[in-house]
Write a structure and sequence with these properties.
This protein has about 750 residues and is an alpha+beta fold. The protein folds into 5 domains: about 130 residues, no CATH class; about 140 residues, PAS domain (Beta-Lactamase, 2-Layer Sandwich); about 70 residues, Helix Hairpins; about 140 residues, Heat Shock Protein 90 (2-Layer Sandwich); about 200 residues, 2-Layer Sandwich (Nucleotidyltransferase, domain 5). It is about 50% helix and about 20% strand. It has 23 helices and 20 strands. Strands 1, 2, 3, 4, 5 and 6 form a 6-stranded antiparallel β-sheet that branches. It has a 5-stranded mixed β-sheet with strand order 8-10-11-15-14. The protein has a 5-stranded mixed β-sheet with strand order 18-17-16-19-20, sandwiched between helices. Helix 1 runs antiparallel to helix 3, helix 3 crosses helix 22 and helix 8 runs antiparallel to helix 9. The longest helix is centred in the N-terminal third of the chain and has 43 residues. It is elongated.
């Protein structure tokens, strides 16, 4: 019962007592009207009541006034403090976050009770710390194995995703995360967040029927007794990239068991036949877009060498047949000779071009690695100094360049040239430079000052086998250059008075630089990778209606918005959206969504000190029409959670018509849920709730900061809701709608 209702009940009780007193005297007066009383009795009763009615009314009024004056302070002193102490103790018991209870304004006996609760809580904290220490010691081996698995999955160079039979992702490594972000249909929005995540469906990327067909193939191979069956398929991502997926089954630990999430597969094992149960599958992914493009280029080259030459060959053959006629007129003979020459030159040019392209293709088929140019320059400088004793320093180096190269062979070539410069020309210092060149290439320069070298000597150095450390390589500098499809020459820089050897090398494609940016933006945590949860094996799609599912079993998207103002219907716009996911009770900080939005209107100066977002920060950012579809994909299949959700949802709903995006999933509000579990608290603001739960507030009034705080608060609210018998989504929504705050509208 709320505070004001208790107070009203107290006053009403005293008023009722006064009314009953008056009624008693009124009843005595009614006796005078009874016919069975004697005249003497009636006179005696009338004498008793005579002159007392005004006093009785005055006494009753005094009682009511006394009740109204005394009840509120009595309630505030003796009723409210125990109720608040009970709620604070409930928070302490449910959250496990110890903070001292009590208030100096409470009565002495309530303060004593709070002190006793604090003492018990301190004892509990000591016991919990001791138990945690013992558990940590006992589970150190398991934790070490878990960390080894996490480190292995994090450092794998191949993308790995593990799913249950419903296609829900329960593990993925960092490479998969970066790859899916790069393949996202909208990678510019929130860095492609939401392409993959724990508990999300892999069918957002892969066709369901394609995966089902691959699973069926695995089951058939298991039935035939295959020990480690695999299946492969190729699919197109929403961004148009080609992915090749190799699928392997995840077998249940108990081969003889089955449940709703596993598919029993009979085998031909020795009798009695046992079942091998598939509980999920592993996908190993590879982007084959470039490989397919290279295959297409080779096919086009072959087509040009065959079909493309047929016309020229037919014309040449026809001209030769005419020229065989001895009676052909000289002018006509010259004309056909011209045709033959032109067609021969055309065929020669085409063959030369095709041969050149074929040679480049053969060269580029050598396995080359992608490496940051600045890193290679540093490695080359160290290699030269260690192998030759020369001082080698980086010069003009463009740090953003990525090279595609055989780093070992190229380092040998550069160090071999440096050794010859030292031994044959007496060079003591070298400078390495790297600058971009046209046509997707880069210049790698090995420069020195001093004695020049003639072209004949430079040519010999290029053709001789590389010698380094007393050992001769089977490769020459030219072989290494051809392996890269590049060029090599000697030159002079008269302006800087130096000489140089220059390598022309291929650049890596743009996706490598984009991936490096994603990797640099990725914040590694101590629990790398954060994104795995094998408990999701026990989840099944369609198990219950969403409203009847337990709150602990649902996936949540906790979000917040920053806006230009507080009037969504009056033209205020969203400036920023921040969100984080909760899956299986875990806050997935690594799967955050954060994006500034261009509101396409001026930001009021009065609101800038609140959220800190200026006009320059949002200029050039995606518009809400671009951001909302990406956020909708990020939040799909989850329950939305926000603090004062009516405000944020109103902004989203007003954009439904212009963007075509509707957020139809259920919504929970931490403000309303706080009022459900703590009806006696004076404030249900986000900061007040966070303080009660011991949640640290960072980045207040930023979308991401508020979303993180709201998510942690929501985690603390779930056990308190369970204590009140609120276990399902339906129960939580119904309880929230009964609070007074649910009547707020925007």
């Amino acid at each position: 019962m709320k505070t004001d209702r208790r107070l009203v009940a107290t006053v009403a009780g005293l008023a009722l007592a006064a009314t009953l007193l008056l009624a008693a005297f009124a009843g005595g007066g009614a006796l005078l009207l009874r016919s069975d009383m004697s005249e003497a009795q009636r006179q005696a009763l009338a004498a008793l009541l005579e002159g007392r009615w005004p006093a009785l009314v005055l006494v009753a009024g005094a009682l009511v006034g006394l009740a109204a004056a005394v009840a509120p302070p009595l309630y505030r002193r003796w009723v409210a403090p125990p109720a608040r102490l009970a709620e604070q103790a409930g928070v302490l018991a449910a959250s496990g976050v110890w903070r001292e209870l009590g208030d100096a304004s409470w009565p002495a006996d309530v303060r004593a009770l709070a002190a006793a609760v604090n003492a018990l809580a301190a004892q509990r904290e000591a016991l919990r710390a001791d138990i945690a220490r013992q558990v940590a010691e006992a589970s150190r081996g398991v934790e070490q194995e878990r960390r080894r698995l996490a480190a292995l999955m994090s450092e794998l160079t191949q993308s790995v995703v593990v799913c249950n039979l419903d296609g829900r992702v329960l593990l993925y490594n960092q490479r998969a995360r970066l790859q899916f972000r790069a393949l996202s249909a909208a990678p510019a929005v929130a860095a492609g967040a939401g392409s993959i995540g724990l508990g999300r469906s892999i069918y957002a990327v892969f066709d369901r029927e394609l995966v089902a067909h691959a699973l069926e193939n695995l089951q058939q191979r298991l039935q035939r007794g295959a020990g480690q069956p695999t299946a492969q398929f190729v699919t197109v991502t929403p961004s148009g990239q080609l992915l090749r997926a190799q699928m392997a089954p995840v077998l249940a630990a108990d081969d003889g068991g089955s449940d709703r999430d596993t598919a029993p597969v009979a085998t031909t094992a020795d009798p009695p036949a046992r079942e091998r149960v598939i509980s999920g599958f592993v996908l190993m992914l590879e982007n084959i877009t470039r490989e397919v493009e290279q295959d297409g280029a080779r096919e086009r080259l072959l087509l040009e060498l065959t079909e493309g030459q047929r016309g020229a060959l037919a014309n040449l053959q026809a001209a030769l047949e005419v020229l065989e006629d001895p009676g052909l007129e000289p002018a006509l003979r010259e004309r056909f000779l011209t045709v033959a020459r032109d067609e021969a030159r055309t065929m020669g040019r085409r063959l030369h071009d095709a041969a050149d392209r074929g040679a480049r293709e053969l060269v580029t088929r050598w396995p080359l690695e992608e490496m940051r140019g600045a890193d290679f320059v540093q490695a080359a400088a160290r290699r030269i100094e260690s192998a030759t004793g020369l001082a080698a320093v980086p010069g003009d180096v463009e740090g953003s360049l990525w090279l595609k190269l055989d780093s070992y062979a190229l380092l040998q070539a550069v160090a071999g040239l440096a050794l010859r410069l030292k031994n044959e020309l007496g060079v003591a210092r070298l400078e390495l430079g790297l600058q971009p060149a046209p046509a997707g290439r880069a210049h790698l320069d090995l420069a020195w000052s001093g004695q020049p070298i003639n072209s004949e000597t430079a040519m010999g150095w290029e053709l001789d086998p590389i010698e380094l450390g007393g050992q001769h390589s089977t490769l020459s500098v030219r072989d290494v250059v051809q392996r890269h499809g590049g060029e090599f020459w000697f030159g002079r820089d008269d302006h800087r008075r130096r000489l140089f050897f220059r390598f022309l090398l291929p650049l890596a494609d743009d996706t490598t630089a984009a991936q490096e940016q994603l990797e640099s933006a990725f914040v590694r945590s101590d629990s790398r990778p954060e994104y795995y949860d094998f408990d999701l094996f026990a989840r099944s799609e369609g198990e219950h209606a969403l409203d009847d599912q337990p709150l602990a079993a649902l996936a949540y998207t906790v979000f917040d918005t920053e806006t230009t103002g507080l009037d969504p219907a009056g033209g205020d716009e969203i400036l920023q959206i921040g969100a984080v996911r909760l899956v299986n009770g875990r806050l997935l900080r690594g799967e955050a969504f954060e994006q500034l939005v261009d509101p396409q209107r001026p930001i009021p100066s009065a609101s800038i000190p609140i959220h800190g977002i200026t006009q320059d920060m949002v200029t050039g950012q995606p518009t809400i029409a671009q951001v909302l579809p990406a956020f909708h994909r990020y939040a799909q299949d989850t329950v939305l959670v926000a603090h004062n959700a009516a405000f944020d949802m109103r902004f989203l709903q007003l954009k439904e018509q212009s963007t075509g995006v509707r957020f139809e999933q259920p919504v929970l509000d931490t403000l309303l849920l706080s009022a459900v579990v703590h009806p006696n608290q004076e404030s249900h603001g986000l900061e007040a709730i966070a303080e009660r739960f011991g949640v640290t507030v960072l980045g207040r009034h930023t979308a991401m900061g508020d979303a993180m705080v709201t998510a942690e608060v929501f985690q603390k609210l779930l056990p308190l809701l369970a204590e009140r018998g609120i276990h399902t989504l339906r129960q939580a929504r119904e309880a929230a709608q009964k609070t007074w705050y649910a009547r707020l509208e925007y």
